[in-house]
């Protein structure tokens, strides 16, 4: 294959990724990014820049977050008028692309540098509203003893503090600390209602694992978390700020490394009769089958000595929506059920299982 042919194939692949994000990820969630993604998909010059980070996950998110970061840092440009996160409310997104393209070409090397030195590590607090009913089921199956929690892909640790937040669903369903500064609202779809406990499960210890944890005491890291929030998703931005403050006040333990390497020894340290719940959200969505299989094999082996649970929120490629799942590992056997469909940022939940 010639170099030019390889370059064309790379551009085609990158274009396909932007179209996919426009049609499935941004659709109905971010009119701004949906519009931009469709236009970038047809722009060889900008595709070439985005493709420089081809080995990274979620390249469209990474590319747009790099632009957003520069704007948040105060780069003056007419493009800012289209970004609600910058206190502007222009929603004429049909006109945004020439300004976007101008900004990107003017800051090409800065954008490339950001993409090469950063990763998409969105720490979406709203997803906790999806996780909470599953944690309640784990507590119900373990006689409501305090849980030991281990999160895979914990980023800044905001979802590690899920029990410090207040949740409001529909039909008067509420749980969590009513005095928490973090208020999370989640609408309900379908006829079934999730098993929301009046009192959240107790947590005896919590540990996060991440390849590159984000330190919220570092101002640049916090700004990157803000840049990862889509500019026209201001509800998410409002949830992010108080959660960051809580993590600063009570920083959870986060270990740097690969979960597949660290989990066996971490599991060994948990007393056998202490309920253990491992969880991840949008950590393995873009992973290949191999790490998923390794994780389940690892947990199956660990369950030969002790019971454990796995709660996950991921977006399988064959599903129209993200799914919430719960697996129990006991005596070397895995039993798994799908509990619900959900929104990728926790905006809504559709319960699918009558398990109590």
CATH class of the largest domain: Alpha Beta
Distance between the termini: 57 Å
Fraction of residues in β-strands: 15-25%
The CATH topology annotation of the largest domain reads as Rossmann fold
Per CATH, the architecture of the largest domain is 3-Layer(aba) Sandwich
Strand order of the largest sheet: 5-12-11-10-9-8-1-6-7
Helical amount among residues, as a percent range? 25-40%
Short description:
This protein is of the alpha/beta class.
Tell me what you see in this structure.
This protein has 356 residues and is an alpha/beta fold. The chain folds into two domains: 3-117, no CATH class; 125-215 and 228-351, Rossmann fold (3-Layer(aba) Sandwich). 39% of the residues lie in helices and 18% in strands. The strands form two sheets. Strands 5-12-11-10-9-8-1-6-7 form a nine-stranded mixed β-sheet, sandwiched between helices. It has a three-stranded mixed β-sheet with strand order 3-2-4, with no helix packed on it. The radius of gyration is 21 Å and the shape is globular.
